[in-house]
Design goal:
Keywords: Oxidoreductase. It comes from Szabonella alba. It holds the Pfam family Mannitol_dh. InterPro entries: 6-PGluconate_DH-like_C_sf, 6PGD_dom2, Mannitol_DH, Mannitol_DH/Oxidoreductase, Mannitol_DH_C, Mannitol_DH_N, NAD(P)-bd_dom_sf. By secondary structure, the protein is of the alpha/beta class. The chain has two domains: 284 residues, Rossmann fold (3-Layer(aba) Sandwich), CATH 3.40.50.720; 201 residues, N-(1-d-carboxylethyl)-l-norvaline Dehydrogenase, domain 2. The protein has 21 helices and 14 strands. The protein has a five-stranded parallel β-sheet, sandwiched between helices. α7 packs antiparallel against α8. The longest helix has 25 residues. It starts with a strand and ends with a helix.
């Protein structure tokens, strides 16, 4: 492109004709949603659905106000405000690329200690939904009970200082206190993270935190607010120089473009205490059985990501598509899912678990999506227990095979040693990396040290079928390496 056009509301008319731009008057939009966690996934997924609704001339009173509660959220705020909260979405598909600029977000709150701007915005009666994408590990869950970790320093702080909270959940509690006291009614809390029963998880976090400082408020929140479960799905890589260059190739100077695959899915319980947009008009599914959809997605897609990311990183493969081009890793994925995960997953309308495996095989193999093994392997201490261990427990209960899933755990332990097979270091990639690396190194000579991390594995070290298989794989891997142990499993 000869001319590079800085992305802004004023420049939309100058963008290339091939780039779809908002067909609605953004100046006439009014806010109805506060979204906490303005990462790439939200902008490629939930914000896109709303943008397309606005394009249809619908729901213009449901625009998004962005928010964050971490210091680095301020960096995203600066980038987005500089371009009028517009985002260039670039769809990457082997059949060709396409792009559109979305404009469903109309503001981004200041990120401040104590979260006063966020609390004030959520207390506004115009806000009827507070949505979150704060990652699976961002809900302060106690691994032993599944409830709120009341001993976490952030939670202790918010319970003691409810008017100056550190967490998103503390800010929600503070805003709901104001709404209750003013008689302006509740809002819906909408979790958009990959957690089974994510609405129930969000309810538990908010209500339990309120209980620590104001039991009466906690009871009001529990009875008046709604927290629908939802399942979200779209592969959205992190933004780096490649993604910024793709936008520049279109002639757009966008400081925070987003690339994504040609697939989206959003399944939501229709339980909104203060109304909702008509997301079903643009492809979302409202269902009373979100659990079945999320089970398929979390077990097979998210679990599948964990199956391939760790060995991919150890073998020096940079992207998920590269791991799928590796015959051993692809065979590992297909066999583990077919024999040890899919048997515990029920079909949903229109697709069986085996059909879904074929779908994610194609999606993971998309060479246009530069989704890195490092991004997918991040926070295994949350993702392995959330996405892999439930299938292990199902297999142990039913007498089904678990040897492949034991290998997946062994490969994660090998990854956490922090060293690739070619000798290069794997940089820390987990909130608990220091501990994980120490235990992984100890497990080289005593494999059970890894399974004895009860906060991750519970009592699985005492399950002979699983622990025995894990021990065997660890010994084989120490003697023969990662590729050989994967081949041994796939040929067994």
């Amino acid at each position: 492109m000869d001319e590079l056009i800085p992305l802004s509301q004023a420049s939309l008319a100058r963008l290339p004709a091939s780039v779809r731009v908002p067909r609605y008057d953004r100046g006439a939009l009014t806010p109805g949603i506060v979204h906490i966690g303005l990462g790439n996934f939200h902008r490629a997924h939930q914000a896109w659905y709303l943008h397309r609704l606005f394009d249809m001339g619908l729901n213009h009173d449901w625009a998004i106000i962005g928010a964050g509660v971490r210091a680095n959220d301020a960096q995203m705020r600066d980038r987005l405000l500089a371009q009028d909260c517009l985002t260039t979405l670039i769809e990457l598909d082997p059949a060709g690329k396409s792009a559109e600029v979305t404009g469903a977000m109309i503001g981004f709150l200041a990120v401040e200690e104590g979260n006063a701007p966020l609390i004030a915005q959520m207390a506004d009666p115009a806000i009827r939904i507070v949505a979150l994408t704060v990652t699976e590990g961002g809900y302060y869950l106690d691994p032993a009970t599944g409830g709120l970790d009341a001993a976490h320093p952030d939670i202790v702080h918010d319970a003691a200082h409810p008017d100056r909270p550190r967490t998103a959940f503390g800010a929600m509690v503070a805003a709901l206190r104001i709404r209750r006291d003013r008689g302006t009614g509740p809002f819906t809390g909408l979790c958009c993270d990959n957690l089974q029963g994510n609405g129930a998880v969000l309810r538990r976090a908010v209500v339990s935190l309120a209980q620590l400082s104001d039991p009466d408020l906690a009871a009001w929140i529990d009875s008046a607010c709604s927290f629908p479960n939802s399942m979200v799905d779209c592969i959205v890589p992190a933004t780096g120089p490649r993604e910024i260059a793709l936008a520049r190739d279109l002639g757009i100077a966008d400081a925070a473009p987003v690339t994504h695959e040609n697939f989206r899915q959003w399944v939501i319980e229709d339980a909104f205490c203060a109304g909702r947009p008509d997301w079903d008009r643009v492809g979302a599914t409202f269902s009373d059985d979100v659990h079945a959809y999320e089970m398929m997605k979390i077990r097979i897609l998210n679990g599948g990501h964990q199956i391939i990311a760790a060995p991919g990183e150890v073998l020096g493969l940079t992207t998920i598509a590269e791991t799928m081009a590796d015959p051993g890793i692809r065979a590992l994925l297909r066999r583990v899912v077919t024999e040890e995960i899919a048997p515990h997953v029920a079909p949903v309308p229109g697709i069986t678990p085996q059909d879904y495996l074929d779908l994610i095989d194609r999606r993971f193999s998309n060479p246009e999506i530069a989704d890195t093994t490092r991004r997918v392997a991040f926070d295994g201490s949350s993702r392995q227990p959330g996405f892999i261990l439930p299938s292990i427990r199902d297999g142990l209960r039913s007498g089904a095979p678990v040897a492949g899933l034991a290998l997946v755990s062994a490969l994660w332990a090998r990854y956490c040693r922090g060293l690739r097979e070619d000798g290069r270091e794997i940089a820390p990639n987990d909130p608990h990396w220091g501990r994980l690396q120490t235990v992984a190194l100890a497990a080289e000579s005593r494999p059970m040290a890894w399974l004895e991390q009860r906060d991750l594995y519970g009592d699985l070290a005492a399950e002979p079928r699983f622990a025995g298989a894990f021990d065997g794989w660890m010994q084989q891997m120490r003697e023969n390496g990662v590729a050989a142990v994967i081949a041994a499993y796939c040929l067994s």
